[in-house]
Amino acid sequence: MSETELSLERLLFNLNTLAELGEEITSPKDFTRVVKSSLYMVMGTFSSSKGAIFQHENGNGSYIPIASKGLGDIGGLRLKLAPETIAELLKRREPVELGGGKDAGFLGAAGETLEKIDAKVLACLTVKDELLGLIAINGKFSGEPFTLYDHQLLSVMSQHISFSLHSHSLLMKLMHKYTENKGLYENLRRIYYDTIHAFAAAIDAKDSYTRGHSHRVSAYSAALAREMGWSNEEVEGIRIAGLLHDIGKITVDKTIINKASPLTSYECRELNSHPVIGYEILSKIKFPWKGIPMMTRNHHEKVDGTGYPDRLRKSEIPIGARIMALVDAFDAMTTDRPYRPKLSFKEAICEVRENWNRQFDPEVIQPFISVIRKEVRREADNPTIVPLLQEELDAVSLNRILEGFPGPRSASRPCRWISRVLKNTCQAIHGWIAELQRLCGLNKNGVFSSSCKRPNQNPRTLREAAHIVR
Amino acid sequence: MVKRYRNFKELGDTVVLYPDDYINDIEGEKLEDLCANYLDRGFRKIVVDFSETELVNSIGVSILIGVIEKVRERDANIYFSGLKRVNYDIFSIVGLTKHIRIFETEEDALGIGPKTAGQAVL
Ligand SMILES: [Fe+2]
To answer: Is A218 in the same domain as A337?
Structure first.
């Protein structure tokens, strides 16, 4: 090949390398691989057998190797550059030749380090006025000197690599911020949950008999909501609402909450104010979940409209509040209270059945029964309700307890028709009674006397048992 | 793209390596490892036959320089053969042709004894 031909071939080879380098640094490949390929391209272009790319470390003038070839393990190597050295490098903006009497004294200790790795040419990797890194290579394999053309070519290649380093450094900063924010968010979330749990414990602490009540209502509500096909986010919302549903009780005198004898009308009014007070407290908090204040406000509503504080009927009551009304009453029934011992599971289920479509919504009772069935049959992934009950349940006794329970599974067609007629009749009668009670209650105290009715020591009906769910 | 050096031939203390069609990314570094492995096993002469290699780019050049350096460190000998015109030109540009003995064919390369050519070439 003649000299002209060789020059032309070299130009083409170098242009091709620049094109490949451009492609490499914009490729989605892993950064380490991109840097390594870039170094190999530089070394191949100048037929160097040793070389390394250094990147600045925390902007403290220390540069560490991020890729190397022909130098063995240089992981522990550091290039320490003084601010004035960096300033000088930035001023020169072109590759610096080292050794052989060249003017590289301004590099100080870094110059000696570079000498140890046999570096002959040093190129800067800069973006604006920042020295992001350095490329150091040894002499050409052929022993030929570096020409002005080589310097220019190395400068162009360095600019390409600087771009890659800069993008990566930005990405790393972003990742760092992201990880930091994620950690902060996790911390906040933990504090948030801890606070809510502390509140729940404070609520339950007012009543020695209801210890753990808020946690159970929370767990039961979440299990039921999941059974009803709620999303994870919604389940989380009702779990929190369950923990806080009785928060209004923190303003109610402890002696009223723990009173074993019947309440006076004043005490009754005080106690029944807790859903509204709870609502007022919680509606001032910006929860990430929807409906928590309303679930709290309406957890003592009944589907027949005789509950409090808003006397809402069935679909007017938020579904979350209907869920909580059932599990709240169920937990109250199955745990000891100052004024009565706990009911057995069978008795509690009996009361639920009695209040089908009166106090409790059948749309909620059915999935509730379904969860219990699954848990007893060990078909549930995370049994929640049965393990918290204070009695052993097996599939045979559960079937007996649930026998004839209203619902799509248990009733045949004619039975369902009869039960519907009976149910409607009962509902009508119950509605009239409720209306009468309501009117009487309003005339006397402005509150519902039925809600405050105190039970006997050993209640046998839900009108006795469930009304005491304070 | 070169990936694996699936072909090699061992003849006494000589091994002939046949790189794939492209030596243009860092995967090609396996050639360096392969050579180091043969040198460790006592092979004294390495012939790299490029007759199947369509293209060597700047990354390939740096890998081949690495191979040559490894052979030099062990005082062994390395020869290239079967180079296509385009690859020969690239080796000329980077100055490799002046420092390594290149043969037309693999057979020609194998005809050279380590003592007669080794030191002179590298
Ligand atoms: Fe309550």
So the answer is: yes
Q: How far apart are CA A178 and CA A173, in angstroms?
A: 9
Question: How many inter-chain contacts (A to B, CB under 8 Å) are there?
Answer: 78
Least confident of A31-35, A39-43, A203-207, A279-283: A203-207
Q: How far apart are CA A439 and CA A446, in angstroms?
A: 9
Tell me the CATH number at B74.
3.30.750.24
Answer yes or no: is A417 within a domain: no
Q: Which of A251, A201, A246, A203 is nearest to A221 (CA)?
A: A246
CATH number of domain containing A324:
1.10.3210.10
Cβ–Cβ < 8 Å for B24, B87: no
> Does residue B120 form part of some domain?
no
Closest to B1 measured CA to CA, from B62, B57, B67: B57
A90 and A220 co-located in one domain: no
Q: What is the full DSSP assignment across A170-237?
A: HHHHHHHHHHHHHHHHHHHHHHHHHHHHHHHHHHHHT-GGGTTHHHHHHHHHHHHHHHTT--HHHHHH
All residues with CB under 5 Å from ion ligand 1: A 246
Which residue does chain A place closest to B99, by CA atoms? A142
How many domains does chain A fold into?
A: 2
Instruction: Examine residue B121 and state whether it is found in any structural domain, yes or no.
Output: no
Q: Which residues of A77-86 are buried (b: 16+ CB within 10 A; e: fewer)?
A: bbbebeeebb
Both tokens of A199, joined, read 């509140």
The whole-model pTM stands at: 0.57
Give the whole-angstrom CA distance, residue A278 versus residue A286.
14
Residues of B in contact with A36 (CB under 8 A): 26
Question: Do residue A69 and residue B62 have CB atoms under 8 angstroms apart?
Answer: yes
Q: To the nearest whole percent, how much of chain A has pLDDT over 90?
A: 47
Q: A219: which 2 tokens? A: 């767990």
Q: Average the pLDDT over A17-27 and give the result.
A: 88
Residue range A314-358, pLDDT digits in tens = 999 999 999 999 999 999 999 888 778 889 999 999 999 999 999
Q: Say if residue A168 is in the same domain as residue A252.
A: no
| Residues in chain B within 8 Å Cβ distance of A10 | 93
Q: Which amino acid is at A98?
A: L
Domain count of the fold of chain B: 1
Compute φ and ψ for A70, nearest 5 degrees.
75, 10
Burial category of A124 from C-beta neighbours within 10 Å (exposed 0-12, middle 13-18, buried 19 and up): buried
The predicted structure's pLDDT at residue A254: 86
* Of A425, A438, A304, nearest in space to A360 by CA: A304
Identify whether A288 is part of a domain: yes
Q: What is the largest CA-CA distance in chain B?
A: 35
Range of the domain at A405: 209-411+440-467
CA distances from A463 to A76, A201, A263, A326, A422 (A): 79, 28, 16, 14, 20
**Residue A108 zone, left/alpha/beta (φ > 0; ψ -120 to 50; rest):** left
* Contact list, A13 vs chain B (CB under 8 Å): 58, 90, 93
Query: What is the helix (H) or strand (E) element at residue A19, kind and residue range?
Result: helix A3-25
**What type of residue is A143?**
G
Indicate whether A102 belongs to any domain.
Answer: yes
For residues A251 and A361, state if they share a domain.
Answer: yes
